[in-house]
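Lecture 7 notes: from sequence to structure.

We start with a single chain of 485 residues. Read the sequence below before looking at the structure.
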Amino acid sequence: MNQGNNKLTTSWGAPVGDNQNSMTAGSRGPTLIQDVHLLDKLAHFNRERVPERVVHAKGAGAHGYFEVTADVSSYTKASFLSGVGKRTPMFARFSTVAGESGSADSVRDPRGFALKFYTEEGNYDLVGNNTPVFFIRDAIKFPDFIHTQKRHPATHLKNPTAVWDFWSLSPESLHQVTILMSDRGIPATFRHMHGFSSHTFKWVNHEGNAVWVKYHFKTEQGISNLTEEVGTRLAGENPDHHTEDLFNAIKNGDFPAWKLYVQIMPLEDADTYRFDPFDVTKVWSQKDYPLIEVGRMVLDRNPDNYFAEVEQATFSPGTLVPGIEVSPDKMLQGRLFAYADAHRYRVGANHQALPVNRPRNEVNHYQRDGQMRFDHNGGGSVYYEPNSYGGPTESPDSKPAAYPVSGLAASVAYDEHDHYTQPGDLYRLMSEEERTRLIQNIVGAMAPVEKDEIKLRQIGHFYKADPEYGRRVAEGLGLAVPPQL
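Now the structure, written as tokens:
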């Protein structure tokens, strides 16, 4: 906007003669439909809210840059990772998962960790969380899972019975449940938490050689968390605590930063590793695949306008660049469709052309028209392909690397069903004080569940992970461990 021109105009640029009084038939007469300025204001006001995200509705964001600090060109041909010292502009959005856009920041919930890198070969989105695993491992279960996190259709209240009923019938959730109910379930701020790709991706180098990869963003501010009591108090006193903290830190020059590390797995190891490396409810041991430094992310600029930059920012794990590809992770495969489709519904078919989402390099394609097409829409250029007019054509060297597939087309589960080893290992790694808080958080969350049957089923999962784990939860709920365990 031109700050030097203080003349108020309509949305089509005409000067406004009166912005205080509607046009009426006399001083007491009805309002006239010919007051097009009034109609335009009211019609726009009615449409000022795009539908909020189904998940990750409450969030905060900031601009920054990513700088490469170690050479990884032997693993990937991704241009923005091509040399030590290279900087790429980026945008980050942090969020809670289940709550509405007006919900509190300090609830016990995973945090979204969504990053957009504006590379010279197009945008690259990394859509992760602050946890290395997730509750489920097949996208077909995702709508049901999220329904349990939302409000009861009759009472319009949160429903702990639905939450624990689903988890107790989905034992693959136990690893993430253990993390969520631990000290790390409520980060102190967005700045004081790690970020993870959670999913496995594939890196491909210039020679066409590939490896499997997982991302780990380690906060340089250090890990800091809130207790259940402090989180509850902040939810009442300052429900926007995390949003405020991130904005003020950047405003005051205290720029948050994260170091990026990756775990690299040779392709052939996927067939022999003791856990399925594509199962998002599992982690790879860092003893088996140590962390390798890649670079550093710094956030140093706040948005000028929250709606334009944070609310309209769209991320999808399918927004990829040459050198970074997907894995057979069933949850990831579903997200490749769901995320982009959600943005087409929520923001519009042309959401990628919005300033916060627009690639910094030139975009050449044959997509035309659609609601809210606000750029030159391809002008009068050729609008189909193949064509005889020199229009943009494909680049064969950018094709994804091939990998073999086999088997019958069927609804097939993961081969491996050990849902207890890793949660048990995590429990045993905790100090006695951490275990005590974990048990207290679980007992407090499960106490409102209506059916003992559900509680006992979930206690059985805790017990299978570690007998002490199950016994202490049972004692806290005043229940006996099922004898068959």
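Residues 27 and 70 are 73 Å apart (CA to CA). Keep this in mind for problem set 3.
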